[in-house]
Design goal:
By secondary structure, the protein is of the alpha+beta class. The protein has 6 helices and 9 strands, in the order βαβαββαβαβαββαβ. The radius of gyration is 15 Å and the shape is globular. The N and C termini lie far apart (30 Å). It comes from Saccharopolyspora antimicrobica.
Length: 169
Amino acid sequence: MTSALERLDLLADPVATSVRQLDDARIGATEIDPDLADTAAFCEKYGSPLELSANCVVVAGKRAGEVRYAACVVLATTRADVNGVVKRRLDVRKASFAPMDDAVELTSMEYGGITPFGLPADWPILIDPEVAKAPALVVGSGVRRSKLIAPGEALTNLPNAEVLEGLGR
């Protein structure tokens, strides 16, 4: 693993900008086979434990005609409580995973590579406490051909990051 600051070429543009701003040498980047970007395939091929991988999903909900987005970061061994914890946090009647095309367009990232780094500035980044305290996690890099490795603490240092109790189930 190389410092992500030295391999910005492996990251989607908004992710590279975010990594530069954080200036955290603990964030690493590694190139992977893009066909193995999905968490289960990646973990199986590269021998990475599922409990040390985190998934970032984009959630949308409506309130008074306004669509509200958030990113949820949970361990790969859990699922985000979208219709409980996330719905209440966004203060919407119903929350669901954002359509793939919307998530890709709004984040400027590839599907299967969406990461908490470099998300739109007005989105809350909801982080499960187990993610926040992990010593090292594999997360997306904004593109399918690489992964980031970062301590959970680095994710909590992102703008709009919130550790949300009960997010992962």
